[in-house]
Every structure is written in C-alpha cells, then in structure tokens.
Design a protein that fits this description.
There is one protein chain. By secondary structure, the protein is mostly beta strands. It has no helices and 32 strands. Strand 5 and strand 6 form a beta hairpin. It is globular and about 65 Å long.
Length: 350
C-alpha cells in the first residue's frame, strides 16, 4: 500500500480553506494596540472615542487615558482623598466620573475640569460597593451594588451639599450583588453571584413583595457582569459555566445560553454595541464577540498574562480593554480579525 501527500501551493490556495490569524490589520497594522498605564486597571468607561477613564485600585487612583494616535497619548491620574479606598467600578456621565470605593465604603465623583473629588459615605459600614451606573438629569441618580452589604444603593445628588442616599437590602442572605445596569428609572438589573441569580429592582414599589424579582441561573453558577440591549433583554457573563446568558422575561426557557468554544475562559465583563455582544475572558486571556442570530462566536487571543477585566465600546466601534496583568489599556478596533489564505493539505491514501 502506498501513501501520497499532496501539497497545493499558496497561490492555488485561494480556492481552499480560510484560516483565522489575529496578528495584524489587513493594511499591515496591529489589530490590538496597547497603552501603558501606571498601575493595574480594573474597570473602564468611555467618555468619547480616544478618551477613557479607568480605575487603578492598588494605586488608589482614577486615571484618564487620552489617545490622539498610536504614538501620541497621555495618562493623567487623580488621587482619591480616602486612603486605600480601592476604586472598583466607574461611569462617566454628563461631565463627571462616578466611582465606587470598595474599601473606602463611599461613592466618589470626580470633576475632570477641576480635578476635585467629592465623596459620599454609605451608611452601612464595610458595605463593599462594586458595580455602578448613572441616570443623568437634575438631580443625578447613581445606583450601585453592595457586595458585603447585601444590598443595592441609590445616591441622589443635586450638589455636594444637597444629596441623599438610600439602601435596598436583598431578601436573600449572602447574595453578594456584584454588578448592575439601569434600564430605566424603575428597572434596575443586577447580578447576585452568591445565590446564582440575576435580579430586577423596581424602586417605585419599594417596600413591597414584588420590588425585587430574582431569577435562577442554575445551581453553582456565578453571574457577574450585566448589561441590557436595545430590545430590553439583559445579557450577563457566567463565570463558573464559561458562558454568556441572555435573559428573556416572561418566557418558558427564560435564559438562552451561549457556551464559549475555547476553554478555559472565565467570562468577566460584557458590553453590547453595534449588533455584537463583547466580553473579556479573565482566565482564557482573550476578548471575544458574540452575534446572537445567526449565532457566531469569535475569540481573540491576547498577549501572555494580559488578565483582561473591564471593557467598554466607543462610538467608533473600538473596544477598550483593561489588561490588568500587563498594566496596560488596549484598543481593539475594526476589522477585529484578519483572514488570510493558507495552503490546503490533501492526503490521498491508496
């Protein structure tokens, strides 16, 4: 018996298979551009294309990254008045940067114009504030989660001397709420990894038995980051199951799961923009995009030990990623992937 190996040259491979290469743009430039920052970034919020805000917990700083070009960028840092406050999550809204202080047990507001930081104390001691979102207006309403306080918090601010703070305790003990998203003034979605649930709060009927509604994501699951798409459906990462969930209220199935093809991954943060669901993989060292229908999942390998955490998408479609393991921010812009032709290998057995 003879065995023959036939190699079709590269020039003929245009009729063969396509392979995915995640190294350079079609024009030869890099698909991923990194910008050094003076610490390990955790979460990121977009002010405008090329203008980012991020938390640096270990340095007790809020940082601003301004990118003019890949060779022209600047980083400005702002020290939080409370020592060792560990800024966790943040949101740029209506000219201010709002952030949670995980150890400082406060909500902070940074004025970029003056550099002044105002702080608002949370009544429950050691509440461990984590996720944050902002509803702009007059007054401004800030919602946040209290991981160890087992509650959601609402801060209403007219000025630094005219404000109020209320807390909404969860009925489930040890829920450990992590992240939240304001769908509207009377609809706050949140994750509760401690009890393997996502939930919704309707403040207008508080207190009341239906103010909080929670939904199981399965035993042992760990829902983490959450957002809501333009159709009103929540999307969330599920770290224990290496999957992304889409929740459909008032349906039989409730949750449609998208299991990530490559493992390990540990999906951490999530965002929805331009018809895609974007996510980071803390353990898998990747960032990815998911198109729901027809389903398409693509995962992009990051530099070694990148340890990606927070991400955000700007109006130009660039995905900004906090590479906590490399002390850098990364920009991942269209076309996101590059397809090249490779030789087609045929084996003929006789």
């Amino acid at each position: 018996m003879k065995r023959f190996l036939v190699l079709i040259p590269l020039l003929l491979a245009v009729i063969g298979m396509l392979a995915l290469v995640s190294l350079v743009h079609a024009d030869g430039g890099p698909l991923l551009v990194e910008y050094p920052v003076p610490g390990s970034p955790l979460h990121v919020s977009v002010e405008a294309p090329g203008r980012l805000w991020l938390t640096l917990p270990d340095q007790n700083w809020i940082a601003r990254l301004i990118v003019t070009s890949t060779a022209d960028y600047a980083v400005v840092t702002y020290t939080i008045p409370t020592a060792d406050s560990q800024p966790y999550d943040l949101k740029y809204a209506a000219g201010f940067v709002w952030f949670t202080e995980f150890q400082g047990n406060k909500i902070g507001r940074l004025d970029p114009g003056t550099g002044e930081v105002a702080e608002f104390a949370i009544p429950t001691s050691d509440s461990g504030p984590t996720g944050i979102d902002v509803l702009t207006g007059n007054p401004v309403t800030v919602w946040f989660t209290e991981r160890t306080g087992n509650a959601l918090g609402r801060l209403v601010v007219t000025s630094t001397t005219d404000w109020s703070l209320a807390e909404f305790p969860l009925s489930h003990s040890n829920a450990q709420p992590e992240d939240l998203y304001i769908q509207g003034a009377d609809s706050i979605w949140f994750t509760a990894p401690g009890i393997s649930r996502i939930g919704n709060l309707r403040p207008s009927i508080w207190p009341g038995s239906t103010a909080f509604t929670t939904f199981s994501t399965g035993g042992g699951s760990q829902p983490w980051a959450i957002t809501v798409d333009s159709d009103g459906y929540p999307w969330f990462t599920e770290r224990a199951g290496d999957r992304i969930g889409q929740f459909f209220p008032q349906t039989i199935a409730d949750i449609l799961w998208y299991t990530l093809p490559l493992s390990p991954n540990d999906p951490y943060d999530v965002a929805v923009a331009f018809g895609w669901v974007w996510f980071t993989e803390a353990e898998g060292n990747r960032v990815g995009q998911l198109r729901p229908r027809p389903t398409l999942i693509r995962q992009f390998g990051l530099p070694e030990n990148a340890s990606p955490r927070g991400l955000a998408v700007d109006a130009d479609g660039c995905v900004w990623i906090a590479l906590s393991g490399r002390n850098r921010m990364a920009a991942w812009c269209s076309p996101y992937f590059r397809y090249v032709y490779l030789p087609l290998v045929l084996r003929n057995y006789q």
